[in-house]
Write a structure and sequence with these properties.
The chain is mostly helical and 125 residues long. The protein contains six helices and two strands.
Length: 125
């Protein structure tokens, strides 16, 4: 596929994004981006499309160092260990099955991180 400015179906968008970042991007990943407003859906349910330019803009951060990208945006004191980048999305969302958008959810690895690092001191006291 060629780059830029066209409209893509969800399937085409997943194929294009997979080639663009060199990682498997599923149709569910694209639907997630739409559902959470990270990219716009163009058209109705039967013919939903996304802008290739918007998709390229969203995935551009995957082509550079993600840590550097977010430190530029959020500051150098960012604790990158809390990004849990080493986990696939399926591992961080398997407990919720994407039944509905819930922006306040915690991934299991985050809860485990804080419990493991802070409960020993509490138990000692």
């Amino acid at each position: 596929m060629t780059l830029m400015h066209g409209l893509l179906t969800i399937k085409e968008a997943s194929e294009w994004a997979s080639g663009y970042i060199g990682k498997n991007v599923t149709t569910s990943n694209i639907a997630y981006l739409i559902q959470y407003g990270l990219i716009r859906k163009i058209g109705e349910n039967g013919s939903a499309q996304v802008s290739q330019a918007e998709l390229a803009n969203y995935y551009a951060k995957f082509l550079t160092s993600r840590e550097g990208y977010f430190k530029d945006k959020l500051g150098e004191d960012l604790n990158w260990a809390l990004s849990f980048e080493q986990y696939k999305e399926a591992e961080t969302t398997k407990h919720v099955h994407r039944l509905h958008p819930y922006k306040g959810k915690f991934i299991p690895q985050l809860v485990e991180y804080f419990l493991d690092n802070h409960t020993d001191n509490f138990k000692t006291e």
